[in-house]
Amino acid sequence: MIDTRRLQEILQNFSKTKVAVLGDFFLDLYIQLDRSLSEFSIETHKEAFQAIDFRGQPGAAGVVNNNLSSLNAQHAVIGYIGSDGNGYTLRRALEARGADTSYLIETNERFTPTYTKPMMKELDGSNVELNRIDIINRSPNPESLNTMLGRHLEDALRTHDGVLVVEQVKQDGFGTMSPFLRNLLSELARKNPNKVVMVDSRHFAAAYRNVSLKMNIHEAEVAVDELTGQALDDNLFSKSEHYSQVLWDIQKRPVFLTLGEHGIGNMGQDEYNHLPGYQINGPIDIVGAGDSVLAGIGLSMCAGATSKEAAYIGNLVGSVTVQQLGTTGIVTQDELLRRHHEYQQQIKGN
């Protein structure tokens, strides 16, 4: 646990900390529809939905930047957008949150990855989420783009306290990350052990070396099975400790495993710790929670926190953002401090 004085000390360092985020930047495009305004299309003989509002906000890797912004850190983005309207909207949304977009490449060879999220206000007043529409690239990146991303990564690692990686796209090389960029990142991390290099990869965590890993327990299970064949049929907490040890032995960098309502497991300096989750009453929304936890942990490490302290802060961040419904959540320093006091009371009560 962290006492209040130490937490405040870490938070005060946030504004002096520079963090670059590398990875898959998506536009989350929310469209609010109203059933009472629907029209009948003469051409298609189908209902024509009518939009009454829409907003675009950074998603995927952009959620990390959103949280770095709300936590008052200096932050940059490394990735690409297409030469399209969604790319314009995404860049503007990132810049509105104070992100340095000088490493954000605009290219006419890629679409801007976009999650379109329609919501229908029904006649009874309920608001129902309809099928999401995904716009993602269906071919590998051109080598010229990978090379340019690599140059930006090298420059950012020289000028920032750390790099946080968000790899979301399932098809290898179709998103920002590729075998070339993973190998480069692993080598740069080896050569710069004083820098924080933290990776959150849904599908390719086993391919990295010399980096800190943040993942959920299911991703850890897949990675460990791929690396060693040692996946366990055991309880959650035994799995967390075992997987953390295996990944630490390979990376020799801190490992963070999120355990949902059960908190977070952390391995640092060959010592495993488990922090219980903050117990929440009422509905939750886990969309973007993992990205916000990555921001909290990675920023804390860059600001001088130990891995155990960073895990504590990441645990608080996740507990706040899952209570923000219908959006990818963000947390402020004031909210962190308030949840810290609530968490301490909850732990004492147990």
Number of E-state strands: 16
Biggest β-sheet, characterized?
Answer: 9 strands, mixed
The gyration radius over C-alpha positions equals: 21 Å
Structural class: alpha/beta
> What oligomeric state do the depicted chains represent?
single chain
Helix content: 25-40%
**Helical element count?**
10
Compute the separation of the termini in Å: 15 Å
Helix and strand element order: HEEEEEHEHEEEEHEHEEHHEEEHHH
Write down the overall mean pLDDT.
Answer: 94
Share of residues in strands: 25-35%
Low-confidence runs of at least 5 consecutive residues: none
Strand order across the largest sheet: 7-6-1-11-12-13-14-15-16
Shape: globular
Helices and strands, with pairings:
Elements: H1 4-13, E1 18-23, E2 25-34, E3 39-40, E4 47-48, E5 51-60, H2 61-70, E6 74-82, H3 85-96, E7 100-107, E8 114-121, E9 127-129, E10 133-135, H4 143-159, E11 162-167, H5 179-191, E12 196-201, E13 212-216, H6 217-228, H7 236-251, E14 255-258, E15 264-268, E16 271-275, H8 289-302, H9 307-321, H10 333-349
Parallel strand pairs: 1-6, 1-11, 2-8, 6-7, 11-12, 12-13, 13-14
Antiparallel strand pairs: 2-5, 3-4, 8-9, 8-10, 14-15, 15-16
Helix pairs in contact: 1-10, 2-8, 4-5, 6-7, 8-9, 9-10
Characterise this structure.
With 350 residues, this protein is an alpha/beta fold. 39% of the residues lie in helices and 26% in strands. The protein has helices spanning 4-13, 61-70, 85-96, 143-159, 179-191, 217-228, 236-251, 289-302, 307-321, 333-349; strands spanning 18-23, 25-34, 39-40, 47-48, 51-60, 74-82, 100-107, 114-121, 127-129, 133-135, 162-167, 196-201, 212-216, 255-258, 264-268, 271-275. The strands form 3 sheets. A 9-stranded mixed beta sheet has the order 7-6-1-11-12-13-14-15-16, with helices on both faces. Strands 2, 5, 8, 9 and 10 form a 5-stranded mixed beta sheet that branches. Helix 2 (61-70) crosses helix 8 (289-302), helix 4 (143-159) packs parallel to helix 5 (179-191) and helix 9 (307-321) crosses helix 10.
